[in-house]
Amino acid sequence: MLIEDPGLAKGLLVQVIDLQYANVPGILEDILRDVMTDGELSGEDMDPLNISSEVDALKDTRLAVCKIRGTITGEKDLSPTTSWLPSRTSSRIRAYPINRLIMNGGKRPLTVGHNDGDPVQIDAGGLDGSLNIITGRKGTGKSHLAKLLLLSMAGLGAPCIVLDVNGEYVNLHKSRDGRLSTSRLTVLAPRSGINFALAKLGFRTMAGVLSNALDLPATSSKVFSTIWRDLESKGDLTLPNLTQTVQSWSCHESVREALISRLQVLLESGLFYDETNPLTEEKILHAIDGGGILVVNLKNQSHTVRRIIVEIFLGELTKILSSNWLRAAFLFAEEAHLYLKDTYWDDIITRMRHIGLFTTFITNQPDTVQETIYRQADNVFIFNFTNEHDIETIGKVAKSDSETIRSLIRGTPARRCLLLGNVVHDLPLMVDIEALDVRTMGETRLFFS
Amino acid sequence: MLHRTQETTEPLQQIKSIPEVIGLPSIPDSLVELSTRSMQSLQGSKFNPRPVSLVEMGVDDADSEERLEIGGSITSSGLKRYPINPNKEFVPVVACDASSVKIGETENGMIFAIRAVGVWRQQSKILYTRWGPLLFHVPNSEDVSQYREDESRAFGGLSLKTLRVLTRLRNHVERWVQEVLSESLKDGILLIDGSLTAGTPDNPAARVNKILATARQNNSIVIGISKATQLTVGGRNILGLTNDKDTPHQIDISSLVESEYPPYPVRFLGRVYVAKLSSDGFLFRTDIDRESSQEEAQQALERLAGTDVIFHGYPETLRIAHIFSTFTANEILAVQRFVASNHHITLQSRPSLRRSLFGPFGTSRYVV
């Protein structure tokens, strides 16, 4: 709504964040009297002026709780200035159309849904270079929005990678009735496209896998480094050779044990089953360049295997982006706490963002995402929450005040989302998310179906 | 804080009923016209709505009573207490009440709203009829030219200087409702809020006499119950003449009152009693048509105590009439809204002198 002060030729843009019954004096007495006439007492009013209709109107009077969002000068110029107050006596209040503020979509319009019947288009540029969070209670539509953004970004030519914990993105290229869409989707899974070779991955990636995904102690890492250099110089770098070398290497027994146990996990993971034909950076690049979607299916994988895969993929993406083979890529990470080591969160929002990896975290457990992520998130998409603890966690988002978030997300129906951040020019906006004609495969499997 | 446990002489289930319309007449055209004409003078003027507060509503239900000191004491005067034995034989009980409230101030006067209610306890149901609210714009200066001559006489000229005009308007409405109810009620008890003392310009005796006579013709009896009275006996308010443990009873103090009261102009049109209608109840000054005999008055009180629900000594029917006639803060706001939207006036907020002078300490001296 706009509180216009004609004297100053400008208006204060305010957003209704809550509707309550107005605390009209004497309302309790009225209600008590109404209760008396509810079945026990009846009668008639001879009310020639029809004042009773005015009383009824007052009883239903609503109080709109608003937050000041900025100043509108002229018809469209919005500035974040709020350091003035309109006159209480001469100002008038009118509804201000949302489409004047954010629904133009900018240069790269991306339709996300509807607000009060009007389509809402955000500028995809608002997701570029950004750290995004999609969160909400289970079943409220998080994955749905993630898929919508993913397909839309890919449609605009953006390279996208999905870390798919539940295997719900693998059919995104198919409509509900089985028709294939134009989306270029590549699905990889262990023993189904995911197959690495030590030599191709390189020391840095493998050292990262051992220390970050498999918690190899620092002392053992040093021995591993020596063995790696030795084998690399001989041009004989495979996982079986590496294992064999460690077994015969002159080192402390505990170091050997540590290395052998980790290499055994790698062997059993099935991720290195054919090192002659591995997945390379080139293949990854080919899958995502020009608007392709690469889905890394982590469904039915152990916690350890997930962490290994993610570690390797992040390493490979770092190589691709650092080599400038790709300007940037968009990573969609579902329930990242299941496969991302604590130390990686900061890495993702700092180092990886600077080399062009822009991450969208999707989670129904907001407390699993580190507080620093909420503070640095550029865009936050929040679906319904009822749990106080979850709401408190979400309230730490820097893009809005906690009162706005608390008021707006309570009681919202499924698929209705609160958009915060760059994509809505920092004007919190409720949107009913657009339906998608794709096979989501994300529904919970039921017994009584 | 006073706390009493409610004791009812009749089960409340008796109240349950099927809605019905009593079929009483609507507000007389002359009153509606008077209201309309007074409000027409508002067009285009400035209106300062009264602040609405729950603490101090200032609703006037005409509870002020005549002040009279009666010397001596009840025992020295030989007055007797007569027990009231509730008689369960059903009698229709009808009660009425009226309220007025100030809505706001204009440049040259004040706007008031008046409403009256009639409540009818029948054998298995309670019905009510509400008349109003009617709005009256009463100018500060005497300007009788805008009213018809007969109305001007009836209300003594609409001068606001003493606010008595308002009292007369409200009395006029209330008496009209009492007339309507006395005509409609057969073989019943008509309860009115206040005494049966009349004879002042605000409260002409002829009109009260007419109501009493009509009720008599219909084999009904009029009982006036006062929530407040200034009558004192031996320096003690008559309402303190008994204690909580007393069983229901009445004391006829008519002779005491009449001997002490000046004979003119005030006329006592009823026998004056101090009555306690239930064991746990308060005492109330109770006036009963003086044309009825002592036995008839006693019988009427006993039938009232046996038929009506007596809440802290006060008849429920009259209590409902009071509740339904009283203006709530919300209703005052609604009337202000109606006035603002229907009479093309400019709302104006007059600065509060107390607030301006004393800031946050500019409240009333007495805070409830």
Provide structural commentary.
The complex is a heterodimer of chains A (449) and B (368). Chain A contains 13 helices and 18 strands. Chain A is α/β, with parallel strands linked by helices and 449 residues long. In chain A, a hairpin with a 2-residue loop joins strand 7 and strand 8. In chain A, helix 5 crosses helix 7 and helix 8 crosses helix 9. The longest helix of chain A is centred in the C-terminal third of the chain and has 20 residues. The mean pLDDT of chain A is 87. The longest helix of chain B is centred in the middle third of the chain and has 21 residues. The N terminus of chain B is likely disordered. At the A-B interface, helix 1, strand 3 and helix 2 of A face strand 6, helix 7 and helix 8 of B. Strand 3 of chain A pairs parallel with strand 6 of chain B, so a sheet runs across the interface.
Outline the secondary-structure elements.
The complex is a heterodimer of chains A (449) and B (368).
Chain A: E1 2-5, E2 10-21, H1 27-36, E3 42-46, H2 51-59, E4 62-73, E5 77-79, E6 92-94, E7 109-115, E8 118-123, E9 132-135, H3 142-155, E10 160-164, E11 184-190, E12 193-194, H4 198-213, H5 218-234, H6 239-248, H7 253-269, H8 281-288, E13 292-297, H9 303-322, E14 329-334, H10 342-355, E15 357-363, H11 371-376, E16 379-382, H12 388-394, H13 402-409, E17 416-421, E18 429-433
Parallel strand pairs in A: 9-15, 9-16, 10-13, 10-14, 11-12, 11-13, 14-15
Antiparallel strand pairs in A: 1-2, 1-6, 2-4, 4-5, 7-8, 7-18, 16-17, 17-18
Helix pairs in contact in A: 4-5, 4-9, 5-6, 5-7, 6-7, 8-9
Chain B: H1 29-40, E1 46-49, E2 67-70, E3 81-83, E4 93-106, E5 109-121, E6 126-139, H2 149-154, H3 164-184, E7 189-193, E8 197-198, H4 205-217, E9 221-226, E10 230-233, E11 236-237, E12 249-252, H5 254-260, E13 267-268, E14 270-276, E15 284-289, H6 294-307, E16 310-311, E17 314-315, H7 316-325, H8 329-342, E18 346-347, H9 353-358
Parallel strand pairs in B: 1-18, 2-10, 4-7, 7-9
Antiparallel strand pairs in B: 1-4, 3-12, 4-5, 5-6, 8-13, 9-15, 10-11, 12-14, 14-15, 16-17
Helix pairs in contact in B: 3-4
